[in-house]
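Customer escalation, tier 2.

The customer says the design service returned an amino acid string that "doesn't look like it belongs to this structure." They asked us to rerun it and document both sides in this ticket. The original structure tokens are below, unchanged.
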């Protein structure tokens, strides 16, 4: 029996649901929608500005507001799913996400669009932990690895294909009104997923004791304000590091300390805390969450830099810029599906190999940008970006499988919420670092986009290498633990 299978066997009785793979399809569609909206909007910003006469501040909040409210509700949404029913929360989140997509598409002013995006981000944050919680509930052992492999493929594809799909929609519906269909595309998908989810998702079996637990409102407020305090300066630093309210980071860290203290006190009273802090004492979960934060910092920053480079530096259309990122998307999708199948055999070593491949691919991309100029750069970056994509596919899904392997299914939603909150914070850090390096280099070199892109990519490489170090440390600790166990036998 493999380590993943062994861990799964001690997490409770399990009877396979005959509809689990069809239910997974519904989850993947919903996850794709919410993650796609992180990247698809970027290429539509000029169209929004022209169509709505939106200000630069409005456009900034269209992007950052979604990320902020998405990250804000993840942990609370996970707890609600665990205690009140994942199917119920999934369907509620899907209805809200579809409705707010329609609201965003119908916007008649920049303010309207910003408010709609804030609400859409919160709906996405409500929906996403339920997806991972359902996977935790429906699958065990090797099958869970395969399921997370498919989810990892969705993460890679949705992030990378967003600019391409956005470019196609703008080209098909025109620059003046095409941005509306970036949101309207969610409507038929959302309605279809809603009906399928109502039929196929497993019925909620809510523990009566859990259903009587009141939501830890103090914990919700402390964690929510802490997340906002940490993410807000990072988001604002994407374009103007000097103007970001960096003092909020100290406030956020202090609030996190207060949150931990409150959760311990709340738990000692015999109540259900927002987050079971015992999860963080599980090495596989704590290390995997840390690796996810560091990796998403490097993984997300690369898209920010390269998309700007292709469109502003080389004059690519949104469609051309999206097409240039396809090698990453295709490499990531294929490798994620494979990684989910073989993670039970290779464990954390597979994740370390994947992150190293990402670093190699990004170094190759940096070298290509330094050696080639002109419009053909998008072609010569295809190979190193494909290598980085393959590495990404071998990182995200296997890391998610290993991180949640020792988490009881009853805590799956909350654990997923914490994991994804770390990823959102990592994404904000990565975009802030890459953006600061990119725009700072543009200012000092008077518009040298090749140099700016290279510097931004190097910032992403440094963050990916931090993830490598975390993965190696976890691998070493795991082997020491196994040797210690063997010596006791």
């Amino acid at each position: 029996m493999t380590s993943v299978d062994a861990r799964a066997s001690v997490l409770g009785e399990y009877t396979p649901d005959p509809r689990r793979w069809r239910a997974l399809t519904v989850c993947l569609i919903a996850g794709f929608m919410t993650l796609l909206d992180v990247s698809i909007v970027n290429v539509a910003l000029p169209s929004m500005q022209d169509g709505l006469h939106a200000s630069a501040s409005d456009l900034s909040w269209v992007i950052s507001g979604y990320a902020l409210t998405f990250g804000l509700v993840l942990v609370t949404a996970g707890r609600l799913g665990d205690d009140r029913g994942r199917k119920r929360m999934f369907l509620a989140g899907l209805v809200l996400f579809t409705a707010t997509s329609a609201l965003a598409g119908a916007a008649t002013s920049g303010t309207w669009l910003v408010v709609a995006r804030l609400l859409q981000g919160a709906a996405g944050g409500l929906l996403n932990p339920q997806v991972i919680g359902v996977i935790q509930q429906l699958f065990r052992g090797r099958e869970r690895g395969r399921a997370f492999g498919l989810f990892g493929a969705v993460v890679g594809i949705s992030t990378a294909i967003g600019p391409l799909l956005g470019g196609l929609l703008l080209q098909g519906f025109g620059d003046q009104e095409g941005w509306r269909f970036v949101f309207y595309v969610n409507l038929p998908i959302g309605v279809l997923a809603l009906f399928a989810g109502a039929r196929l998702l497993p019925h909620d079996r809510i523990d009566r004791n859990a259903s009587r637990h009141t939501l830890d409102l103090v914990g919700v407020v402390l964690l929510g304000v802490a997340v906002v305090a940490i993410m807000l300066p990072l988001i604002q630093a994407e374009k103007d590091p000097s103007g970001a309210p960096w003092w909020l980071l100290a406030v956020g860290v202090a609030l996190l300390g207060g949150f931990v203290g409150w959760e311990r006190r709340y738990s000692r009273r015999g109540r259900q805390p927002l987050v079971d802090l015992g999860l963080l004492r599980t090495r596989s979960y704590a290390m995997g969450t840390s690796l996810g934060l560091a990796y998403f910092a490097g993984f997300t920053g690369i898209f920010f830099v390269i998309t700007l480079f292709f469109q502003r530096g080389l004059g690519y259309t949104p469609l051309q810029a999206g097409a240039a990122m396809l090698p990453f998307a295709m490499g990531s999708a294929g490798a994620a599906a494979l990684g989910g199948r073989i993670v039970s055999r290779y464990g954390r070593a597979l994740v370390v190999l994947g992150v190293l491949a990402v670093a190699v691919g990004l170094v190759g991309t940096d070298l290509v940008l330094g050696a080639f100029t002109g419009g053909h750069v998008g072609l010569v970056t295809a190979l190193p970006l494909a290598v980085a994509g393959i590495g990404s596919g071998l990182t995200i899904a296997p890391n998610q499988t290993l991180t949640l392997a020792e988490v009881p299914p009853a805590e799956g939603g909350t654990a997923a919420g914490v994991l994804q909150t770390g990823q959102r914070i990592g994404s904000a850090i990565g975009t802030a670092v890459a953006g600061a390096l990119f725009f700072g280099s543009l200012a000092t070199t008077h518009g040298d986009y090749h140099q700016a892109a290279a510097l931004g990519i190097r910032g992403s490489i440094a963050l990916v290498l931090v993830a490598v170090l975390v993965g190696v440390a976890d691998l070493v600790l795991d082997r020491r633990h196994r040797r210690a166990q063997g010596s006791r036998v």
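Tier 2 assessment: The sequence is consistent with the input. Confidence is low (pLDDT under 50) at residues 1-6. Residues 449-488 form the longest helix (40 residues). Sent an explanation to the customer and offered a walkthrough call.
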